[in-house]
Amino acid sequence: MGIALLGYGTVGSEVLRLMTENSEALEHRIEGPFELKGVAVSDASKPREGVDPELITEDARSLVLRDDVDVVVEVIGGIDYPRELVLSALNAGKSVVTANKALVAAHADELAAAADANNVDLFYEAAVAAAIPVVNMLRRSLAGDQIRRISGIVNGTTNFILDAMDATGADYEAALAEATRLGYAEADPTADVEGHDAASKAAILASMGFYTRVRFSDVSCEGITGVTAEDIEAAKAAGDTIKLLAICEKITGEDGTVSVSARVHPTLVPREHPLASVSGSYNAVFVEAEGAGDLMFYGNGAGGAPTASAVLGDVVGAARNKYLGGHAPKDLTYADLPIADPGDVPTRYHIDLRVHDRVGVLADLARTCASRGISLRTVRQEEGYEVDGHEAARLILVTHTAREHDLADFVADLKAHDDVLAVKSVIRLAE
Ligand code: HSE
C-alpha cells in the first residue's frame, strides 16, 4: 500500500511522525503493510527533520500519478492547486484523504463525483474540528437518525479570543494580540476572525447532516471583529456568554416547505448550555437528533497532532478498503433540500441601544416594535450614559423569536428613530 503525502508543514510533519511511530499498529489496523512513497513540498532545498531526503519532491503532480501510490494525503491548504492534485489523484484511481475544509466546502460535488466515477474513497475527517470525529459521527453513527440542528464552536482562534474577553474584560484588539502572541492566531487572522474558516466547516456539517449539498457560498457569515467588551459585559449581566457558533438546521417555512440554513455568527449562549463551558481554543459540536436526543462532541479542533490523528484514521480507512475491497460511505445528497433564504431564518435579537432619557421614549419604541410584529422578551434600562453631549439611557432589548428580515427591519427603524442616539450592537441568541 503506497502512501503519498502532499505537504510537510505543521500537519504533514505530524502525520509522518505519528505514521512512523505507530507503523506496527497501523499495519494491523489496515490489515496489510504500507509504505510512504513520497512527500511533496514547495521548496525541496529547505532542511527538514524527520523525513528521508530521498522521499522529498517538488513534483506533486507526478507523485500522485505514480503506479506505486494507492492513497494520497493532501495537507497543503489553499484551493486551486490542491483541487487539481486531488482530482488528478482520484481520476487516476487513488483514494484521497484531505484535511482541507476550504477545498471540500467549495468543491465537494466535483470531488465526490470523481471519487464515485473512479470507485475510490474521498475522506475528510480532519477538515472539521480536526481530532473531533464529527464527520464519521454524522456519516456513520447517526446514519439511522434524523438531525434537527447542529451548533458548533468550530474555530479555536475565535473561541480563544472570545473566552479571553469574557474572562478578563479585555477588548477585542487586546484579546487578538494575546492570541497572536501565544500562537493561536495566525499573522493574518482574517479567515478565522471574519468567520470564513467556520463557514467552510458549517457547509460540510450541513451537507452531511441534511443529505443536501451546502456550499461555502450558501453560508451566511458574520465574524467576531464587531464584538466589544461592552457586549461581553452585557452578556454576562444576562447570564450568557458570547460564542462564535456555526449553526446548521432544518427550517420549516409558513407554507410547510423544509429548507436548510447554515450560518456563522456571534451568538449569546446561556451559561448553563454545554457549549458555554467550551473554553480557550477548544472546539465542540452539539447535535440535536430525533432519536439520539442531544449529543456533544468536544476536543482539539486544530493543531498538528490532533489534525494528524484524524488524517491517519482516514488513511487506515482508505488503505484498509483498498486491501479488503470496501468503500467509505458516499457523500449522499439525495434529500436535495433548498437553501433557506437568510431573511426567513427564525432567530432572536439582543439589541443594545442608547436613547434620549426622557418621558415617552420607551412607549414609543414599544410601538415601533409592535408595528413590525416583533414581541419583546425583556427590556433592561440603565441610566447615566452620554452620547455626543446628550444625556442618554442604555436600553437592552431582547426579542422573542421572529424572522431575520423582520428583526433587521426593526433595527433599521430603531436607527432612524429620533430618540435613538446609537444602536451599539445586535447579537443573536441561541435557540
Ligand atoms: N484556524 C482554525 C482554528 C483551525 O483556529 O480553529 C483550522 O481550521
UniProtKB/TrEMBL annotation:
NADP(+) binds at L6, G7, Y8, G9, T10, V11, G12, S13. The keyword Oxidoreductase applies. This is Homoserine dehydrogenase. GO terms for biological process: methionine biosynthetic process; threonine biosynthetic process. NCBIfam families: PRK06349.1 (NF004976). GO terms for molecular function: homoserine dehydrogenase activity; NADP binding. It catalyses: L-homoserine + NADP(+) = L-aspartate 4-semialdehyde + NADPH + H(+); L-homoserine + NAD(+) = L-aspartate 4-semialdehyde + NADH + H(+). Residues 350-428 form the ACT domain. Its cofactor is a metal cation. Catalyzes the conversion of L-aspartate-beta-semialdehyde (L-Asa) to L-homoserine (L-Hse), the third step in the biosynthesis of threonine and methionine from aspartate.
